Amino acid sequence: LQLNHSGQYCCRGWLNSGVSQEWQESAPVTVTVHGVPLSGASLSAQPPTGQVALGDSMVLSCAVAIGTGPLSFTWHWGGSGALLGADPWQELQHVRDKDGGHYQCRVRDSDSVAATLALN
């Protein structure tokens, strides 16, 4: 189910009584789909240690254990709040000394925000 599936539903069909057929409709029922707040945001790195040699590449991945989509992702570096990207992953190519520091992912849905622990 998605949030947009909330609404009123009923059952419709032909009722055959043996003598005649007639269109019947059930009483409507209201279905409300609730979003699940985000939790369990996690950050993983490849290589797994988060240690990379100068000139090599590193891929950071962000995921949530629980939550209702659609999800949006933002990557931040060094506590500055500077936006690095907006995908569930962030690739650092040809790593230089200045690329060291704390990386964090924030995940949003329509109702909540979850942030990963920072990876250094």
Automatic annotation (TrEMBL):
Residues 28-118 form the Ig-like domain. It comes from the Eukaryota. This is FCRL1 protein. It comes from Sylvia borin (Garden warbler). The lineage of its organism: Eukaryota, Metazoa, Chordata, Craniata, Vertebrata.
